[in-house]
């Protein structure tokens, strides 16, 4: 395992993102459709927040009701905006950051994903799952 390998080798580049004006229902659909747990919130390509599936679960009954019972979720989601639910003080890393540096950040913080930003624009996202899969390949 090389200590200097850049995070760009393990990050996801297929970026699913939200705008602060999107609906929380849209966020839930993206989480479920793409089987992801974190979505960066962007404004003109610049990361302004991060929404996690856990954030939605805290305010809704997303996993507690049948998929056909959308009225309850819609009512709860209409009470909040993405701006109110997303994490705003987002830590980002550059694509040249080492995997070790990213692992250290994620180990010290209470979140599980980092947007990867180059020249002010998002170019990827790296998650704890990406790190675990990387480590498993090394063993």
TrEMBL record:
Statement: the UniProt record of this protein carries the keyword Hydrolase: no
Alphabetical list of PROSITE patterns matching this protein: CBS
Pfam entry (one): CBS
Domain CBS: 11-67, 86-139
Transferase found in the keyword field: no
InterPro entries: CBS_dom, CBS_dom_sf, Diverse_CBS-Domain
Keywords, sorted A to Z: CBS domain
UniProt feature coiled coil, ranges: none
Protein name: CBS domain-containing protein
Organism of origin: Winogradskyella marina
